[in-house]
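Marked as duplicate of an earlier ticket. Keeping the data here for the record.
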Amino acid sequence: MRNPFLACAAVVLTAAALAACGSSADGNDPEAAGAQRPAASGPAVPGPSATPASEPATPPTEEPPAPEAPAPAATAEGPKTPVDEITPATGTFTKKQKEYLKDRVPKGMDPAAVLQTGQETCDKLRYLVKADRDTAVGAIVTGEIPDAKDAVAGLCTQHQALVDEAAYAYPDGKHSGKKLRPGVYRSASPTTDCSWQIAGAGGKELASGASDTGKSRKITIPDSAVTFTSTGCYAWLPEGAAG
């Protein structure tokens, strides 16, 4: 279930990107590295010329231009550009940026576009941490902020603690076997329809509960747990890991 904080983050960051269009603060800015922003609107299609009432209207003979093919995704499979050939259209990449781009730029793709994707991930994390830290970790756990691990390791290491905590958390769904880790967990940004169940050997219920308050709840996963199922709770973070 998509978290409302992320929707707000997307709107805020998009507005900020539009406001910053045409300017750059330093060499780490995507535009300083040669990133190209899409045009604000597509090419204007001329309307039909005015025709006297006495003359029959003549249908246009020109077809509207075909839409441009979308740019390849930064995670596209296929051969990658060697790191020593990764250069921006203008300016230069920093050492940290080049390390992040290594083995990530598909052949023929603008490396600045790949870099911008990573920087946008860092921007989302920075926004969410200020709004609610648990939601930021939950967004990594659920995959709503993809590529967070690599972006943090290469571009915004100040958020490494979020990635480390997410590695020991659980998103909504069913978890079983060796993936279960005993301990106390708290729900992050639960909905008003949050429920959970912990079962042991033979499907025996060990604990269950539900909450319609939207407030965080705590549960304990015991050593004897075999499965843990959660719905509408967004994510469960290990207690004591916040900070």
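See parent ticket for discussion. The beta strands are 170-176, 183-188, 194-199, 205-211, 218-221, 227-238.
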